[in-house]
Specification:
The strands form two sheets. The protein has a three-stranded antiparallel beta sheet with strand order 1-3-6. Strands 2-5-4 form a three-stranded antiparallel beta sheet. The chain is globular, with a radius of gyration of 19 Å. It is of the alpha+beta class and about 270 residues long. The N and C termini lie far apart (about 45 Å). Helices cover about 35% and strands about 10% of the residues. The chain contains eleven helices and six strands.
């Protein structure tokens, strides 16, 4: 792979990453560097998913399952029952009571802890999220979702479908907060795109069972691309030039206002 290699000091900065997987060792200083790293990592016609962490120390574990104590995980998962009761009044077209995935997707969209972990089919979207908050180094992960699901069912290597695989998906969503080392691995699912934001971000998800995390080196296709903190502003500027920014990824009006104020600069926003 062409490009400058990360220095030994820079490589040590990424040692805090809890995710066990190979990492690209090239310095990403521009969008061209990032796309070249993708091209050298992703081969063939398989689908690949991407996820960006603005802090390299973050785990590949869904929000409801990150708590160290079982009691806290249980409380987080139990919030779904209250969410359904409240949201049913506020939503114009609420899902049916048994549409567990649709409820989980709506809850995830509004910030409730769930067993879902967000990914995207867009490499540049993942890079945008990895470049937020330039006080920390970031990382973009690449995952082959079919390879992930092959670990669970070698006979049917495919991304799970909300309709055809509804029973399996519902079973995952009804699991407790008890972690089991030999339990079910996370699975990749195609979502029901039930919001404009999800569509704009080309959102997809892994659904995590009672083996909570993708951190432990049990996913052969997982690769990380380190994003140095000092390169983030340059990368965000280049992403904005090709139309990847807060206004396009978050179509809600308040995000458009935040984006416009940021572009105007602090002197004009007093």
């Amino acid at each position: 792979m062409n490009g400058k290699a990360l220095s030994a000091t820079e490589l040590r900065r990424f040692a805090k990453c809890p995710v066990v997987c190979p990492r690209v060792s090239v310095r990403i200083e521009s969008l061209a560097d990032f796309l070249a790293a993708i091209s050298n990592t992703v081969t063939g016609s398989d689908r690949f998913w991407f996820r960006g962490h603005h802090d390299v120390s973050f785990s590949l574990t869904p929000s409801a399952l990150r708590y160290p104590e079982l009691s806290d995980r249980t409380k987080a998962l139990d919030l779904m029952a209250d969410f359904k009761r409240i949201a049913a009044i506020k939503l114009q077209r609420p899902p049916a009571p048994n549409q567990e995935l649709e409820w989980a997707l709506i809850a995830q969209h509004h910030g409730l802890p769930t067993r879902l972990l967000d990914w995207t089919e867009s490499a540049t979207t993942a890079l945008y999220f990895a470049c937020l908050q330039d006080a920390t180094d970031g990382i973009v992960f690449i995952l082959n979702p079919v390879d992930l699901n092959r670990l669970t069912d070698p006979k049917k290597p495919r991304v799970l479908d909300p309709q055809h695989d509804s029973d399996l998906i519902s079973g995952y969503l009804k699991m407790s907060g008890q972690e089991r080392p030999n339990g079910r691995l996370p699975v990749a699912i195609n979502p029901v795109w039930n919001s404009e934001r999800l569509m704009m971000q080309k959102g997809v998800f892994t659904l995590h069972g009672n083996r909570f995390s993708l951190d432990k080196g049990n996913v052969p296709s997982l690769v990380g691309i380190p994003i140095l903190r000092q390169a983030k502003q340059q990368l965000l500027s280049e992403l904005e030039r090709i139309g990847v920014d807060e206004m396009t990824l978050f179509p809600e009006l308040e995000h458009s206002c935040i984006h416009l104020r940021r572009r105007a600069g602090p002197e004009d926003c007093k």
